[in-house]
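Worked example 4.2. Below are the chains of a multi-component assembly; read each line carefully before continuing.
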Amino acid sequence: MSAHVTTRIHGGPGAVRADLDRFGAVADALNGAATALRQAGAQWTMLPSRLAHRTQRAPFCPKLNGTGTSTPDMHTHVSLDYGMTTARSRIHADDTTELATLLGTMADRIIRAYSLYSTAEGIAARLMNEGLQIAAECAPGPTALAFGALTLGNTVAGSVREGGFNPMYAVTGSWWAQEGLLAGLGSRLFTGGGPASVLAGIVSTDEVNDAAANISAVSAPLNDALFGDAIDVRRIHPEKGIGGTSCIADALVNVHDMRLNDVEYGSIAIQRYRRDDGTTAWMVTVPGTDGHLDSPFSWQTNVELMSSDRRQRQAADSARMVDEAMRMAGIGPDEPVAIVGHSQGGIVAAVMASDFADRYDIRHIVTAGSPVANHPIAEGTWVTSIEMNDELVSNLDGARNPATPAWLTVRGHSEPVGSTAGTPVEDTDDRKFLTHDMNYMKAAWKDAKALGSPAVAAHEEHFRQTINGTLVETSYYRGRLER
Amino acid sequence: MTSVFVPPMASSDTPWARATAGVSPSACPCRYVLDDSRAEMTALATSTIRMLRRAADALGQASALEWDGEAGARFHTDVRAALSLAGAAESRATTTLTTIDGPGAVT
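Applying the procedure described above to all two chains together yields the following C-alpha cells:
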C-alpha cells in the first residue's frame, strides 16, 4: 500500500470575507452534525448491552430468561423482542456512523480548501516554536535530553508498528519540535543564550540564518580553499532531459526528472518560451543537493545559501552557477522568469529572487522542500512553497513561511502508514520513507489542487501567466568547481 | 457489587427454570423492564431523527455553496449522497419508532 498525504494551505490570495464566512458557517454546521451523529452511533452500539442489563431487574421472570416455557401463566409475562432491538440498533449505529464520517470529511475539505483555520494554526505554530526556542536557550541540557527521548520513543513505536527497525521515525516523529529547537540552537550557539537573546528570539524568526552566517564566515573560505572558488559553467546535451512546462505540476515533474533521467550532477535546465506578443519568458529548473564535492550543489553550499548575510548568499557556489547559466542563456533583465527548485534548488530560487532581483525579472518561484521562510524575497515575486510536515529539511529555517497573498505554502501532512486518506504517493509502500523525496512534493501539490482552493488556483494562474508561451528551446548547463 | 447478566436459557428442564417457574406475573417486574426499555429505545430513536434533520439542514446549507471546478463538483455530489443517506436513515429510525411502540416488539 502507498503512503498518503493530505494538505493544508497557508497564504495566497484568499476568497472574499463574505464567502469565507459562508463556507466557515457550513463547515461548522457539518462538523456539529457529525459530532452529534457520532455520539448517537456510539449510543446505538451500546444499546443492546444496556437493554440486556435492564433484564436483571427481573431475575426470576421465566419469559425474560427464556425459561419455564411450559408454565401455565407464561402468557402473562412480557419481554421485548431482543433479536429485533439488536438488529435495529446495528442498523442505526451503521447509518449514523457512516453519515458522521461523510459530514466530517466534507467539513474538512471546506476547511482545507478555504484555509479557514490557517491563521490560528500559524499562531499556534509560532507560539510552539517560540516556547521550544526559549526552553532550548534557557535549559539546553534537559531540552536535548527530552528531544533525545522523543526521537528514541518515536523510533521504537514506529518500528514496533511496522514490525521491523526503521530509523526514519527518529526524523519524522519529532517534526513538530524541529523548527523551535533549531531556532533555539542557532540562537544559543551564537548569542550565548542570555536574557537579551531570549527576548530578541521571541520577536525574530531568523536565528538559524544568523547562525548560518556565523558558520559561513569560517566554512566558505575553507570550502573555497579545499575545492576551489572558480566555477566552470558549460552547456551540455543530455541524452534524455525534461519536458515542457505549462503548470506547477509540470515544473515539479521536471525538477524530479532531472534526477530520474540522469542529467549530469551539478546541472540545471533553462527553457525559453516565445509568447504570443513576441516577447520571451524563461523557466529555470534547479535540482537539489547532489553531494559531489566538485559540484556547485554540494552539501556545504547550503550553509551559505541559508545565511542572513546577502553577500554570503550571493557568493554561494550554486547561486553563482545559476546566475552564470542564466546570463549565458541570454535572459534579459526585463524578461519574466519562473524558477522551480527542490531542496537546495528551492533555496537557490529564493536567493535569486532575493539577491539577484536587479538582474532578472523573477516573477514566480516554486520551492519544494526548501527552508526559505526568512529569505528577503523581492516584492513582486510570487512564491509557491510545497513542504511536508515531517521532512526535516524545510524545517531547517526554524520558522513557518510568511502567509501573504504572494506567498502560498502547501504543507503536506504524511498520513500514518496504512491510512488511505488524501492522495497516494508514487513509488512508496507500507514502510515509512523520508518525506523530503520529490514524490511526496508532487503528491502534496496534487492533493492541494484537488481541494479546489481559490488560493492555489490563483498561484497556478500566476505561474501560467509568467510563462504563457510556446517552448522554443531547453538548454542544460553544468557547473564544476575549479581552483 | 458487580452485576452479571444471565443469558437466556432455552430449556425448561434446568434448575434455574424449576426455581423460577412459580413466579407470579403480578409480582414479576418484567412489565417495568419492558416499559423502561421501550422508553429508552424510543428516546434514542427520537433524538436520532432530530440529529438527522439537523444534518439535513447543514447539508441544505452546503448545497447552496457556490464552489467551482472539479473539487466543487465532487463536493456537491457528496452533499447529494449524504442527503440521500440522511433521508434513508431517518426513514429507518421512524420505522424503529413505530415498531418499538407496536405489539410486534413484544413476545
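Take a moment to check your reading of the output against the notes. The first strand of chain A starts at residue 4 and ends at 11. The two ends of chain A are 49 Å apart (CA to CA).
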